[in-house]
Amino acid sequence: MNKLVNEKSLYLLQHANNPVNWYPWSQEAFDIAKNNNKPIILSIGYSACHWCHVMAQESFEDSETADIMNKHFINIKVDKEERPDLDKVYQMSQSIITGKTGGWPLTIFMSPDKFPFFAGTYFPNEQRYGLPSFKDILKRVNEFYTTQQKDIEAQNITITEIFQNLSKKNKDDEIINLELINRTKLDLINNIDKIHGGFGSAPKFPQTYSLLFLLNSINDDNDAIEATSHTLHRMCLSGIFDQLDGGFFRYSVDELWMIPHFEKMLYDNGPLITLLSKAYKVTSNPIFLKRVIQTSNWIINEMQDKNGGIYSTIDADSEHVEGKYYVWEEKELKSILSHDEFELIKNSYFVDGRPNFEGKYHFHVTQESEKFFLKNEKKIKEINKKLLEIRNKRIAPNTDKKILVSWNALAIIGLIDAYKITGDNKFFSAAVKCFNFIKKTLWDGNQLYACFNAKPCFKGYLDDYAFLLKANLELLKIEWDSDNFYFAKNLADILIKDFQNHKDGGFYFTSIHHEELIYRPQTYMDESLPAGNSIAIESLSELGFLEGNQEYIESSKKALISASDSVQRSNTAHASLLAASVNLLVFKKFIIIRCLHENIEKYRKKFFDLPEMIFYFIDNKDKDIPQSLVEKKPLGDFTAYICEGFKCLEPIRNSDELFQELSKK
User: Fold this and answer.
1) What percentage of residues in the chain have a pLDDT greater than 90?
2) Lowest CB count within 10 Å: 122, 215, 508, 550, which one?
3) Alpha helix stretches (DSSP H) within 299-424
4) What is the β-pairing status of strands 613-619 and 647-648?
5) Which domains does the chain have, with CATH numbers?
6) pLDDT higher at 220 or 260
7) Closest-CA residue to 529 (of 615, 450, 604, 592)
8) Which residues are within 8 A (CB) of 398 and not within 5 positions of it... i.e. 6 or more apart?
9) Rounded distance between C-alpha atoms, residue 550 and residue 629, angstroms
10) pLDDT value at position 173?
11) Beta-bridge mates of residue 448
12) In the 8-state DSSP scheme, what is residue 516?
């Protein structure tokens, strides 16, 4: 009997009518497996995953395959966005067993004690792509489990030893330094595709955090500016960006950024708004500003719930066809547009005048057509509006409406960055609305929940606490609120109490209150999200310097040192961590400004372009100031305190004088 019908996850509900007897991750499933001595199939995916849909249609909806699964296995289905802890553990297990990188759908065969003994990703229903059929895999795995128990037990011991070795840390406080940061910058620049932008070849992912690292460490480095600017310029004009409605797709299947996998993920788009906002600040390239506005509007109009939370993903498929919602046939375009309008679209978006996606057109501006497109951009914008009206009448892909704290926190930060460069209060209001929803609905006064899906569910992970702490600090920089400051301290205190590795430093992905798994991950490398340890280091150190809290600083330092072994293995995979380390390697200037409320926006704009500085503006009339900031008193209409580390200069009482002081090299 399929047990997914009462689940809230869209991904699990997509499988609720399969003939497979699916269980959610539950003690019931493991007890049944143990009592019947059956191996477990653990299938991990997410609702917007194209190849998850393919495997479901080929195998999980097939009665013959389901009969084999039900007879010989206990079958567990997991939404990786609800349970990133399980995904981390079993993706790592898959890599240990196969020696290959993982992906989705993730297919794990494991014993009732949760130890995997065979693994893979997508398996076809018939032998192809150099892969055996899933039915053959099922039969062979069942036979292996039945006849080779001792081999499985020996492999379990080996996997346990590998996990134990992964937990050991060779700490060296000399590894992460400014020299390494500069070397990483050069390594990243050398790895950029000078023709099309981005890193490496197909498939090509944005690698947002590597580009953010470059932008944050340029110091007037023209090579770094050119490398990041060219990459973002091509992405903004290419098929990885939805030219009609805004928002970036997950990644490109080619090196040109032309044809994407068509899912849209919130965790991509929030950070890409941040990246483009910073790039616009450095380069003044108008296309970056336009894409910030379009993508921010897309989040607000298409993804934000009426209560403030922001949805997770939009599927790649509609009507069981990938990309169908987004692509066009030539005859359809000709029936909608005038001759002149069609020619503008053809000369802007068609590649060599031929279909570029399964006999249809996906809009993409080539480097050759870029000049024409930019010259006619205003006209094309109006045509795009007409086409979007038609597209909106199509059957749309599913939107996964679960609200994830970590992803929402990244979107909050992105919307705040959009507000900073546009001055459009709509973006700031959306960020505040989202933050307030999380604080009201997913924080119970003692703990944070990771997900809202009709109700709060799953205790928060490292990413939830660390990312929300950073979002909180970004909000405080725009609008001081002492209640939110104390909330930030609550988040920071729980990070240290419940997530910190008190022996070796750094932070585990799960808290001390989490269910025990075969491995407790503690990772430092960026993946599709920035490493939680990186954001924890950045946010704790900033909060520590803001309020003079030595415990937060020490926890950040220990976490940074604990990452040294991981960084040595691959410096470029730790872009967020190296960016965060700057807070500890070089004291940034913290500027606390006390002024009249009506002047805060004026002063924020005045100091906006100053680099490598952190500003907090506090209303002179705000009486509920944390004890650590009480000494930063208003001494008139304007008072500024410049602090580095735990030392502050004499207060400055004139904004022009402050600007001159901060502009000194």
Assistant:
1) 87
2) 550
3) 330-336, 339-349, 370-375, 377-391, 405-422
4) unpaired
5) 10-167 (3.40.30.10), 178-318+400-585 (1.50.10.10), 326-393 (no CATH), 589-663 (3.40.30)
6) 260
7) 450
8) 10, 47, 48, 314, 315, 318
9) 15
10) 73
11) 443
12) P
How confident is the model over 461-505, as pLDDT tens digits?
999 999 999 999 999 999 999 999 999 999 999 999 999 999 999
Which residue has better confidence, 14 or 645?
14
Coil, strand or helix: which one is 124? Answer: coil
Strands 313-314 and 264-265, by their bridges, are antiparallel
At residue 609, the pLDDT reads 77
Closest CA to 218 of 165, 182, 267: 182
The alpha carbon of residue 120 and the mean position of all alpha carbons in its chain are separated, in whole angstroms, by 24
Residue 153, both tokens = 């037990």
Taking CB atoms within 8 Å and a gap of at least 24, the contacts of 137-145 are: 138/65, 138/68, 138/69, 138/72, 138/73, 139/68, 141/39, 141/109, 142/39, 142/68, 142/72, 142/73, 144/117, 144/118, 145/39, 145/109, 145/111, 145/117
CA atoms within 13 A on the CB side of 548: 11
Lookup: tokens for 156: 């379990």
pLDDT 10s digits, 52-94: 999 999 999 999 999 999 999 999 999 999 999 999 999 999 9
For the chain, the straight-line distance linking the first and the last C-alpha, in angstroms and rounded, comes to 70
Q: What is the pLDDT confidence band of residue 643, given thresholds at 50, 70 and 90? A: very high
The residue type at 384:
N
The amino acid sitting at 156 is N
* pTM of the complete model: 0.96
At 248, the amino acid letter reads: F
CA 242 to chain centre: 19
Average model confidence (pLDDT) across the chain = 94
**Beta carbons of 18 and 2 less than 8 angstroms apart:** yes
Where residue 665 falls among pLDDT bands split at 50, 70, 90? low
Q: What is the DSSP string of 230-282?
A: HHHHHHHHSTTB-TTT--B-SEESSTTS-SEE--EEHHHHHHHHHHHHHHHHH
